[in-house]
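Final paragraph of the annual report: two paired records, presented back to back.
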Amino acid sequence: MGWKNIPFFRWSFVRMFLGIKHLTTEWQVGDGREAKLADYVEANAKPGDAADAVRVIDEFAYNESFLINVGDEKGEILDDAVRRANAKRILELGTYCGYSSLRMAVTAPDAHIYSIEFNADNADIARRIHRHAGVGDRITVVVGTLGDGGQTVDALESEHGFTPGSVDLVFLDHAKEAYLSDIHLIVERGWLRPGALAVADNVKFPGAPEYHAYMKEHEGRLWKTEEHETHVEYQTMIKDLVLVSEYLGES
């Protein structure tokens, strides 16, 4: 990719940081790139081909506008975790434009993915992409957050069949300050089966230090964690860390 792997040479990356306040409150950059992505996928990806939709999103992120989804490099770590978990029910926190849920749908063709997204516009964009890719029936995007006072948790349990031990993998890629409180809630509700995996993106950048400390504190007792040194999506200059944590169950 050459210079495209140096983010500071790309205007779309600089533009993202100029609008960082908007990004961290609305989970959109603010220049319409997310909606343009949906148009691009519909125009360039083969209908009904989720793997091709993944390819086209990566192409857009490298050649058109930088995106904040997990990306191709870290996506392979997620793929490996999904296979390792033999996942049938997946909970994703942070849909954005639907890229990581697409990857998981490709990797686990028998799984159903429940993806929680704060921004309703992002949820609509993701649903468009999922429908075009032919996996809309296997990915349910729920607008809300686990910290919204119980509304989303109640919906997951009453409408979507979340019961104790029913979740094989949770992917955390939303507000970094919510990682710890949300994993606590998930454990308290008992949704994870023993052996289920929690995959956390962006632990180094922009960083989730409290979550990282929690996993270290409970290493070998409640969780067994592997740390994967990698890079922030779609570039090779900024380092990142992905945690893959196996849930050992309450002792």
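The closing record of the year follows.
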Amino acid sequence: MDLSIVILSYYNKNLVKEFLTNIFELRLPYDYEIIVVDNASYDGLAELIRDDFPGVKFIQSKKNGGFAYGNNLGIKQARGKYILLCNPDLAVLSAGIEILYNYMEDHPEVGLAGPRLINADQSIQYSCTRFPDWRLPLYRRTLLGETKKGQTWLDQYLMKKVNHYHNFYVPALFGACLIIRTEYLNKVGLLDEKYFMYMEDLDWSRRFWENGFKVAYVGQAEIIHLHRRQSASENIMKSFFNKPARNHIVSFIKYLLKFRNHQLPKAE
């Protein structure tokens, strides 16, 4: 099996339907499988897969254990040489998946890679980052990020000054679309399920580097991501009453505690 495509859904039945149709229309030149995981939304996705996509493997999670938990259910069932983790809000209108696959074939030193994600209007989503410090939730989740100091920090963190149409090694990638070399998971391990949402992709990227495998941004591979990030709250206290922001902050604290005695890996 060349490729396993894992799609995690939480109340996204219609998006999954559109994305599955998109994938099959690509006529990918691989021996591949598709695994759809429903994170306990029970929104009719099981029946949709059964009736419209009988060749797709479906996993029904009995609980919503979060991003890492749900994706790990799919990863454990995957048989491919590579695993492509996908959010359901993606659209592939070019050879993005094939370019990612070929990049992994040509770069055995790379264990984890991601494409250039773009918005529907063709603008770039900054999905590769440097390793953050304690300022991350302040500048990402509050209006402090709109200050001159905050903008300078965020531009550096999000690597905005590099050419995102090129391929290069990066410290970390966001998890909306990732391709993994399956054999390296024996050493690196699965996504850490202690994170309910956020930071699991940063944690994973860091562990790939720590175990001697490179992480790459494949700017030549273009994939549309329809996600819309919520705007920052006015202050840090209001952020705690915003569930996504609260999850982000709690996960970041867990990340800092987990790696507090680790040196940053040289991501090059």
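The first strand starts at residue 3 and ends at 9. This concludes the annual technical report; the extension proposal builds directly on these records.
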